[in-house]
Amino acid sequence: GFIYGTVYHIVYESPDGSDLHGQIREELDRLNSIFSTFDTSSVISRINSNRPVEPGPEFLFCFKRAMEISGITGGAFDITAGSMVNAWGFGPEERKRMTPGIIDSLKQITGYKKITIKDGEIIKELPEIKIDMSAIAKGYTCDIIGGWLNDEGCENYMVEVGGEVVAKGRNEKGRIWTIGISRPDESSFLATTELQARVRLPEKALATSGNYRNYYVEDGKKFAHTIDPKTGYPVQHSLLSATVLASDCIDADAFATAFMVLGLEESVKISREIPGIDVYFIYSDEEGKTEVYMSENFKQLLAE
Q: Strands 6-12, 178-182: parallel, antiparallel or unpaired by DSSP?
């Protein structure tokens, strides 16, 4: 089905063989009413349009983790970058013809330090600041649904929301869940079916962020959907895709996005300092050849 303007795919073995999709859909609708920027009555939409709303514990949990990851990545991950993403044509709004003046005005209303929590309420420095949790809420939703299936006694399941994945146990063939990482193919506007690698997920979460599908070309120049919150411009570097393995999908999702902003060298450095995550980076070298960097533990989970 659909959520957050993207697709979800959930497979599970129910202990008594009952169909749980109705209950799962209820839970997804509830989360959608918190985090979806496509729903004008959602919690996040109400915050963005400065209407009164009580964020609630799940929103605040996600918000706090987003702030922590912003700190760890030096602002590469930033939930206030929504206005920039929209202006460049990668959100629900129409693309603007960008100028240095527009970039400067967008920078005024971007920056994770310009929003805080006080007494359970989101306080914005400027009313024009808009937040977008799409790079963390999908992963968080996978964690919530996985936890719910667990509580229902499901020992084997796979939850995927917009490419972020949580898995436990085994698939219907009795094998550990194996998730594919797409090979970046910039020559195709359609999703390539060719895989760069396959990863076994024994009770882990995985998220991939990449620039090779969501981009447009204007005046002969390519603009990718990853926007650097500090400069206001789409990133221009050699990193094509960042895959992160973690125990929670909320972290895998957010760090994968942050690494796409940071680029290869900085991402390798920071990823080594973060406990509990493993990474698989696809990048192009100086001659344009596709290369891979992966952390030591990641190698052990690669399927043949």
A: unpaired
CA nearest neighbour of 159 among 15, 27, 68: 27
Name which of 114, 100, 139 is nearest 258 in CA terms: 139
Helix (H, G, I), strand (E, B) or coil at 292: strand
User: What residues are paired with 9 via a beta bridge?
Assistant: 160
> Residues 227-268: pLDDT tens digits?
889 999 888 888 989 999 999 999 999 999 999 999 999 999
What is the reported pLDDT for 82?
81
CA distance 299 to 87: 39
- Tell me the C-alpha distance between 95 and 87, whole Å: 5
Answer whether residue 190 shows pLDDT above 70.
no
Burial of 27 (0-12, 13-18, 19+ CB in 10 A): middle
Helix, strand or coil, per DSSP, at residue 204: coil
> What is the spatial distance between Cα 245 and Cα 207, in angstroms, rounded to a whole number?
7
Dihedral (CA of 105, 78, 229, 44) sign: negative
End-to-end CA distance of the chain: 31
Instruction: Find out whether 256 and 207 touch, Cβ atoms under 8 Å.
Output: yes
pLDDT reported for residue 188? 47
> By mean pLDDT, which of 74-78, 226-230, 277-281 is the weakest?
226-230
pLDDT at 141 over 70: yes
Q: What are phi and psi of 239, to 5 degrees?
A: -75, 120
Nearest to 245 by CA among 187, 178, 199, 290: 199
Whole-model pTM: value is 0.91
Question: Distance between CA 110 and CA 79 in Å, rounded?
Answer: 9
Is 86 in contact with 102 (CB distance < 8 Å)?
Answer: no
Helices and strands (H and E) in the chain: how many: 9, 14
The tokens describing 259, both together, are: 């690494």
Strand partners, 171: none
